[in-house]
Design goal:
By secondary structure, the chain is mainly beta. It has a single domain, classed as Sandwich (Jelly Rolls), CATH 2.60.120.10. 3% of the residues lie in helices and 42% in strands. The chain is globular and about 40 Å long. The structure holds (2~{S})-4-acetamido-2-azanyl-butanoic acid. (2~{S})-4-acetamido-2-azanyl-butanoic acid binds next to β2, β3 and β10.
Length: 130
């Protein structure tokens, strides 16, 4: 069994900070779960184009408000506490935060903790899909 505290995980390689957001990786590839699990904070005013070509991601909003635009379809959905979105088609999207948002995120395949977004808003593939 793995038990971790968010506050304690905000150290070392588990905390990734970049423009517009930070993410605490509570579970990573080397935990052997087949997915990674992150608590991500999106800063107020962030406008984040992303395209996870190599990963599936689901995101649950715990706090804050914003929107997600599906650039494949042109649809925009409000994001607020209680809303989940899943990028089941590797959808190109833009996440916008009108207030600071706290999100619980799951990635398949799991991140190993070192990835950074490339110029297309994707993470490189560093694990086989499960
Ligand atoms: C919600 C979202 O996709 N934010 C970008 C960061 C990502 N969730 C991560 O690496 O934790």
């Amino acid at each position: 069994m793995i038990v971790r505290k968010l506050e304690e995980a905000k150290t070392g390689r588990r905390l990734v900070e970049t423009a517009g957001w930070n993410s605490v990786r509570l579970l990573l590839k080397d935990d052997g779960m087949g997915f990674s699990f992150h608590i991500t904070t999106i800063y107020a005013g962030a406008d984040l184009p992303m395209h996870y070509r190599n990963h599936l991601e689901s995101v649950y909003c715990i706090a804050g408000e914003g929107s997600i635009e599906n650039q494949e379809t042109g649809e925009t959905f409000e994001i607020r506490p209680g809303v989940m979105y899943a990028l089941d088609r590797h959808d190109r999207h833009v996440l916008r935060a009108t207030s600071e948002m706290t999100m619980a995120c799951v990635f398949n395949p799991p991140l190993n903790g070192l990835e950074v977004h490339d110029e297309t808003g994707a993470y490189p593939l560093q694990a086989e899909a499960v």
